[in-house]
Each structure stands twice: as C-alpha cells, then as structure tokens.
Amino acid sequence: MVKNHLFKFEAPFHLESGEWLPELELAYTTYGELNADKSNVVWVCHAFTGNANPSDWWSGLIGEKRLFNPKDYFVICVNVLGSHYGSTNALSTNPLTGQQYFHDFPFVSIRDVVNSLILLRKHLEINSIAYLLGGSLGGQQAVEWSLIEPEVIQKQILFSTNAIHSPWGIAFNESQRMAIANDPTWESSTPEAGMEGMKVARAIALLSYRNYETYNRTQSRDAGQVDFFRANTYQNYQGEKLLKRFNAYSYWTLSKMFDSHDVGRNRGGVQKALETVLAKTLVIGITSDILFPPVEQERIAQFIPKAKYVEIDSTYGHDGFLIEFEAMTNAIVDWEKEI
Fold it and tell me: 112, 183, 259, 289: which is the annotated catalytic residue?
C-alpha cells in the first residue's frame, strides 16, 4: 500500500539564486518497506505536472508484478518544491508574512530541488540509493543528483531527458508562460490567477509531448469534415483536465525550473561534469521525441563513464516514457544482465 508523508524542514532553505525560503515542506510517498541495511531504495523523480505517487503514472514499471515490485524494494517519490501536490509552493503561506506567496514565490532551480531531496534523504538516514529513476524533468533531477552525491547513487536510469535544457525546450516553455501572462487574471494575487492562460499553455505543451504522426493516428479527421475536429476537442479537453488538478503559479515555477537545468554550470561544462558520475547508468530515448530528441540522451551516455544508451522505437513522442512500459522494462532487464 502506498503511504503518504510530509517532511518539514523548519529552518531557512537557501536557494541557488541567493534567495531563500524561511522553511519548507515536502510531500512524499513510500511503497514497500526498507530492508535491514536500507539497501533496497528505489528513488523516483517525477516529471513536470506529475505527483509523488509513481504507481499512478508509472504503473507499468512500479507495482506488484512489475519490475520494481514493492515486495522487494522501498520506492520513494517526492513532490518537487514549487509543485502543486503538497510541497511548499506559491499557494503556501509565507510564515514571515502570514500571507500566501503568490507571485513572490522565489525562483527554484533543478539544483535547489535536488538539495531539498538530499535533506529528506538525510532525515530518513538513507545512505545509499540502489536505483534512481527519472524521466524528463525527473531525469534532470536524477542526473543532477548523481553529480552532487556521486557516492550515494548506485544505479540510475534516465528516461527522455537531457544534461542541459535546450533553446528549443526553453522556447516552448516561454510560449506557455506567455499564454499565462496574457491571461488578465494573472495580475491578481488569488489562487485562481492565470488559470485560463494555463489551459492554453497546456495545449501548447501537448504539441511538444506528441508529434505529427501521433495526432494523425489518434485525432484523425473524418472524410469531408470542415469543423469540430477531434484535434479541437482534444486540445480543449487536455487544458480543462489540467485546470482541475494544478495551478498556474506552479506551472510557471516548474517551467522556469526546466529552463534552469545545466549540469555544467560552475562545473567546467557539461562534458566535464558528466565524466564525474560514478553511478552505473542507463539512458533511454524515444525515437519520435521532438521535445527531448534522442541526441540529448545519446550525449549523456557518451560522457558518463560506461553508461549505456538504448533507443525505443515509438510514435508516442516525448510521452513515450509514460507509455512504452514493456520496451522500457526489457531494456532495463537486458542492461542488468550486462553490468
């Protein structure tokens, strides 16, 4: 059974930008039990609008009768700082003012997120992570963590991610933030600010998560049709769906977090940084991913010592890492046989 937890750090948490949070809370889940020597930890880092329960969105990899079975492993996943699902974010109350942060919530980088995860790791007295897993934004966290604490991470599996966020990815994120900023309500300090803009932002994001072939297959138009297409309905539906479970402040915070990612920052560049990773590493790419194209995963595997790169042929684009469970499982099993 998945268990929900809340970790409170009641001291100033200093951020990479020089700003700080007076305190922070991290919502997290655990699945399974720690063994006696705490050597069975599987730490999962979630993606952009994901929650802290990977058995929800990675059920093909995590769960009973799956590769990472809670009967064998202690699976932990933390809702990232700034996100909507229980961790400190813009809708939290600033203890110094007694008011919600709203637009005053500070900038949070990938490196800040990892440092917050390390606080929890130390609190739980976990000294070794058997497997560190992450896709997309989660993969960015994972590779950053393997650099900050190389001795702690034993094995890591990186899905559809990169070592430095590309200008292409930043442009997609800025377009989404423009949609939020152009919502007239974004100027107000209320929990509902920018929500209609976020709906448009989500529609923009979907174009990068899938691709031309995916839409042709799943949102095909009928012969002779001139209006009210499946693609119209789909874009609106996905925007409305996010409105029911997220907030625009967190969307803004996490999109900026995406853009901040650069493992080479203050480390002499990407290659030099990746060459210091000690974890045994598997990097998985998706052939049709246009947001994090396979060349970005190949580059990670090229520079991390003895890393392996596997490419999965899929038409699902970036979302493939949330869908192609059988192929990903087979890739991991084959890799395990080699190391």
Answer: 289
H/E element holding 94?
strand 93-94
Distance (Å, whole) CA 328 – CA 319: 13
Judge whether 259 is annotated as a binding position. no
pLDDT of residue 278: 98
* Span 152-158, average pLDDT: 98
| pLDDT value, residue 271 | 98
Give Cα separations from 13 to 18, 105, 108, 325 (angstroms): 10, 13, 11, 37
| Residue 95 structural domain | 3-165+263-338
318 is catalytic: yes
Q: Which of 223, 257, 291 is the last residue of a domain?
A: 257
Q: Indicate which CATH number applies to the domain containing 302.
A: 3.40.50.1820
**β-strand 13-14 against 20-21: which pairing, if any?**
antiparallel
> What tokens were used for 218?
């799943």
Q: What value does the mean pLDDT of the chain take?
A: 97
Distance (Å, whole) CA 290 – CA 206: 11
Q: Is 136 a catalytic residue?
A: yes
73-to-67, 85, 130, 148, 199 alpha-carbon distances in Å:
10, 24, 9, 24, 38
| 222 appears as a binding residue in the annotation | no
Confidence of residue 62 (pLDDT cuts 50, 70, 90): very high
Q: Is the Cβ–Cβ distance between 66 and 332 less than 8 Å?
A: no
Residue of 87, 136, 146, 250 marked active site: 136
72 carries an active-site annotation: no
Region for 307 from its dihedrals, namely left if φ exceeds 0, alpha if ψ lies in -120 to 50, beta otherwise: beta
